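re: ur question from yesterday

yeah so i grabbed the chain u mentioned. its 339 aa long if i counted rite. heres the sequnce exactly as i have it in my notes:
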Amino acid sequence: MRPLEEIYTLLDTPRKVVITMHQKPDGDAMGSALGLYHYLKTYGHDVVVISPTNWADFLQWMPGTSEVIDYEREKSRADLLLQHAEWIFCLDFNVLSRTKRMEESLAAAPGDRILIDHHQQPEIARFTWGRSDVHKSSTAEMVYDFITESGGANRMSLECIQSIYTGVMTDTGSFRFPATTASVHRLVADLKDRGLQHSVVHENIYDNFTENRFRFIGHVLSHLLDVYYEYNTAIITVPQQILQKFDIKTGDTEGLVNYPLGIQGIRLAVIIVDRGEERKLSFRSKGGFDVNIFARKYFNGGGHASASGGSSYEPLEKVKQQFLTAMRENAAELSSYSF
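ran it thru and got these structure tokens back, copy pasting raw so excuse formatting
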């Protein structure tokens, strides 16, 4: 994988460009993709964004989302675009398998794949150019760096600015997480100077849920949360029938794993959601417990040291028992945590 900087001088030549991200894109995946989309269009590139799957309703307000192609809904069209793309930007994922059913077409596409990502252990051999930086708060921050380093700061439209801010804000937990460095605050200050109205973004992201979701959260915290104080660990287990009961849609479980970390003494939190075809796990930690290592070792996953994910095709109750076994195997480290 060659340095990303090599393409800066190539931006002036219009190309057919596809931008894509991981399945079930979150705020950072969609925000970084749309931020780059709006930027590249100012150069005259023929740009399209393809999501491997659908996305959460609370992202629908973002400028450009209506133009994003859902691969699972428009596979033939998306495959054709991939086949003709000269550049394929891969944002917020670094292994092709994270694009789910799009993986085969993405791997077969003849264009140059370009990586911009902040997760660990990238498949660097699969990309022509790229940058992987685990110290960055978000992929959206890296897109901002790409824009400013390539001399395009004055090309950032309000739509581009809103998209980048959405990605940075959501992936830092509204600037709460340790990855929120001084450079992140300088980025936000620059976006503010360029016209960002940050409260509009916050309202669209955090004040835009259905009543069902709030009742679902109440049910989860009252009935589906188990706390293991001897291991400083909390687990939420969500059966598929509960998702159906509350009419839960894509994105409605977003952020739920963070709630148990607000319990005094909890160092590790996990949510296991039965999605029917597979069980999805999200891990969050504090105090130095590395959930990237934990997820990779036990649940075919990975991500960041304090925020990772995994998956399993085993039944929900078996996955929960596997987690409890893994928790006990890490008892020494989890139990030694003190505030």
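noticed a couple things. Residues 212-335 form a domain with the Diaminopimelate Epimerase; Chain A, domain 1 fold (CATH 3.10.310.30). also The mean pLDDT is 95.
anyway ttyl
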